[in-house]
Specification:
Radius of gyration: 15 Å
Order of helices and strands: HHHHHEE
Helix content: 40-55%
Number of domains: 1
Length: 78
């Protein structure tokens, strides 16, 4: 989301989106280390399901972003 907002083509006034961006900016130097603070990380570890953490923190996987224009979704190519 941070990168999308930096492009200047998108904006948000959603409190949770703004809070998540602030949290990302705080933790971006080492996201995986920061995730050690998250309760969900420890629940996943306890159940041997934490192998998804690295994948979930992989950047630039999507090349198309869906955008709602009126009643239709259109593809924005990044």
């Amino acid at each position: 989301m941070h990168q999308l907002l930096e492009l200047g083509h998108f904006n948000t006034d959603c409190d949770s989106a703004i809070a998540s961006r602030d949290l990302y900016l705080l933790a971006r130097k080492d996201l995986l280390a920061y995730m050690e603070n998250a309760a969900q990380r420890h629940r996943l570890k306890k159940n041997n399901l934490d192998d998804v953490i690295g994948y979930c923190h992989t950047f630039d996987l999507a090349t198309i972003i869906p955008i709602l224009q009126g009643d239709a979704l259109i593809a924005y190519h990044s």
